[in-house]
C-alpha cells in the first residue's frame, strides 16, 4: 500500500457492505483501515440506481448493525415501492408452493420468468424448489449446479418414456440399452442400428441382433425381451408413474444404482455405507420423479413438462426461466422480483457462523447483497419446521428479518387453505 500510495496513480473501487469472501481471505476491515490510515482520498458513491427506496432503506438498516470503518448511507431517488414481503410458512414444501403461486401471479401480472430470481444460502436448499417447479411446469435455470432433470438417473427414466412415445428415438435407446451393463458398446450398438427396412429402433435391433456375438448378443437379447414387456405394459397402462415403476422392477434398477456407484476403492474397502448412501440419494431422485409423474395422465404430458430443463439444449441468454442461485453467485446481478428463501436462524445466518461475531457480520453483508439484488419486489420467507436427513427441527426466523424496521416490511402467515390468486398483492 505504501508503494502504491507513493506512486500516486492508484484507484480502487469497492463496496465494503458487499464484502462476502472472508472465507477466501478477503478481510474488508483490514482494507478499510489501510485506506483510512494511509490518507487515501475517498469519494463515496451512495446513490442506488437499481432498487426502490423501501428496499434500499431496509437494506441499510440491516447492514448498519455491522461496525463500519468507512461509513456511507445508500439512498434511492425512486419511489418507495411496495414493502418487503415477509412470509412465514410451515415447512420447506409450503415455502416452495408459496413461491410457485407468487411466480404464477407475477407472470400473470406481466413479468417474464427471467425477471425473477430465487436466492438461497446454500445449493442444497434448491432441491425442493426444482421438484416443485418441475411439477408445476415452471422453467428454471440452476446457476452453478446440476438441475434435477439433468441427473443421470432421471435422464435414464425419461429416455425410457421417450422411446415408448417415439419408437424411432435412437438416442433414447442408446442411453438405456446398456442398463444394467451387458457389454453393448458403441460398436455393438451401431451394428444393431444398421438399416434393415425397419423404422422402429427396437425392431431394427431385433433384426440385426445376429450381427453381435458373445456377451453383447446375450445382453441385447435380454434387454429386448424385457423391454417388450415394458412396451406391452405401457400399451395397457397409460399412467406415467405406473410405467416407470414397472420398468424399474423389470430391469432391477435399484440394484443397478448400487452397483454403478460402488467404486473399485469401495469394493476393496468393503465400504457398503458410502455406496448405499450414494445409491440412496439417486433412488430418492427416482422416487421423486414417480411422485411428480403421478400428477400427469399420460407420458406425452410428462415429457412436455420437462422440456427446456436441459441446460445444454438452449443458450442461457435465450431462455425465459426463473434463476435459482446462491447469494454468492448473484453478486452484481439484478432482478425485478427476488425471493430470499430459508430465512431462518441456523440457515441464514449459517449454523457455522452463530458463535463468531466476525462471521455473523459477514453473513449480514451477504444478506445485504441478497436484498439489493431486487429492483422492485422483494420477498423473504422462513419456515417453522426444517426437515433434513429424516429429522425435523423447529427453527425461528433469522435475526436479519428482525433487523428490518417495521415500516419497510409486511409480515404475514401462510394461509392454511389454498386460494385462487388474481394478482400479486393477494399473496401476502
* Class of secondary structure makeup: alpha/beta
Biggest beta sheet summary: 7 strands, parallel
The SSE order reads HHHEHEHEHHHHHHHHHHEHEHEEEHE
Low-confidence stretches are 311-317, 416-428
Using only C-alpha atoms, the radius of gyration works out to 27 Å
Instruction: Report strand %.
Output: 5-15%
The quaternary structure here is single chain
* E-strand count: 9
Give the overall shape: elongated
Our measurement of the CA-to-CA distance between the termini, rounded to an integer number of angstroms, reads 51 Å
Give the helix level as a range of percent. 40-55%
Put simply, the count of helices is: 18
Strands of the largest sheet, in order across it? Answer: 3-4-2-5-6-1-9
On the 0-100 scale, what is the average pLDDT?
83
Structure explained in plain terms:
It is a single chain. Helices cover 44% and strands 11% of the residues. It is an alpha/beta fold and 428 residues long. The protein has a seven-stranded parallel beta sheet. A hairpin with a 2-residue loop joins strand 7 (385-388) and strand 8 (391-394). Helix 4 (92-108) packs across helix 5. The longest helix is centred in the middle third of the chain and has 23 residues, at 214-236. The radius of gyration is 27 Å and the shape is elongated. Mean pLDDT is 83; it is low at 311-317 and 416-428.
Amino acid at each position: 500500500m505504501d508503494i502504491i500510495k507513493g506512486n500516486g496513480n492508484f484507484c480502487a473501487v469497492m463496496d465494503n457492505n458487499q464484502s462476502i469472501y472472508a472465507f477466501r481471505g478477503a478481510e474488508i476491515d483490514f482494507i478499510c483501515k489501510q485506506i483510512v490510515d494511509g490518507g487515501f482520498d475517498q469519494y463515496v458513491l451512495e446513490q442506488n440506481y437499481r432498487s426502490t427506496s423501501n428496499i434500499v432503506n431496509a437494506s441499510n438498516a440491516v447492514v448498519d448493525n455491522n461496525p463500519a470503518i468507512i461509513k456511507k448511507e445508500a439512498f434511492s431517488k425512486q419511489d418507495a415501492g411496495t414493502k418487503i414481503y415477509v412470509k412465514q410458512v410451515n415447512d420447506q414444501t409450503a415455502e416452495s408452493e408459496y413461491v410457485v403461486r407468487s411466480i404464477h401471479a407475477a407472470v400473470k401480472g406481466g413479468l417474464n420468468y427471467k425477471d425473477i430470481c430465487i436466492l438461497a444460502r446454500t445449493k442444497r436448499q434448491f432441491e425442493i424448489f426444482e421438484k416443485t417447479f418441475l411439477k408445476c411446469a415452471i422453467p428454471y435455470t440452476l446457476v452453478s449446479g446440476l438441475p434435477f432433470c439433468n441427473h443421470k438417473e432421471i435422464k435414464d427414466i425419461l429416455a425410457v418414456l421417450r422411446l415408448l412415445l417415439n419408437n424411432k428415438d435412437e438416442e433414447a435407446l442408446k442411453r438405456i440399452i446398456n442398463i444394467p451393463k451387458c457389454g453393448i458398446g458403441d460398436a455393438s450398438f451401431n451394428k444393431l442400428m444398421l438399416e434393415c427396412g425397419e423404422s422402429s429402433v427396437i425392431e431394427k435391433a431385433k433384426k440385426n441382433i445376429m450381427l453381435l456375438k458373445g456377451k453383447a448378443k446375450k445382453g441385447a437379447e435380454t434387454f429386448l425381451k424385457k423391454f417388450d414387456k415394458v412396451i406391452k405394459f405401457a400399451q395397457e397402462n397409460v399412467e406415467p408413474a405406473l410405467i416407470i415403476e414397472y420398468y424399474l422392477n423389470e430391469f432391477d434398477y435399484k440394484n443397478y444404482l448400487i452397483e454403478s456407484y460402488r467404486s473399485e476403492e469401495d469394493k476393496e474397502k468393503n465400504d457398503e455405507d458410502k455406496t448405499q448412501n450414494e445409491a440412496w440419494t439417486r433412488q430418492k431422485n427416482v422416487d421423486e420423479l414417480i411422485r411428480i409423474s403421478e400428477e400427469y395422465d399420460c407420458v406425452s404430458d410428462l415429457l412436455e413438462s420437462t422440456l427446456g430443463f436441459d441446460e445444454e439444449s438452449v443458450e442461457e441468454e435465450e431462455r425465459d426461466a426463473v434463476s435459482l442461485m446462491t447469494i454468492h453467485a448473484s453478486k452484481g446481478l439484478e432482478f425485478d422480483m427476488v425471493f430470499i428463501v430459508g430465512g431462518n436462524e441456523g440457515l441464514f445466518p449459517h449454523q457455522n457462523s452463530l458463535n463468531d461475531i466476525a462471521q455473523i457480520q459477514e453473513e449480514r453483508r451477504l444478506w445485504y447483497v441478497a436484498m439489493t439484488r431486487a429492483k422492485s419486489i422483494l420477498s423473504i420467507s422462513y419456515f417453522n419446521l426444517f426437515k433434513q436427513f429424516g429429522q425435523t427441527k423447529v427453527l425461528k426466523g433469522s435475526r436479519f428479518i428482525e433487523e428490518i424496521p417495521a415500516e419497510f416490511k409486511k409480515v404475514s402467515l401462510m394461509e392454511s387453505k389454498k386460494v385462487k390468486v388474481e394478482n400479486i398483492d393477494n399473496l401476502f
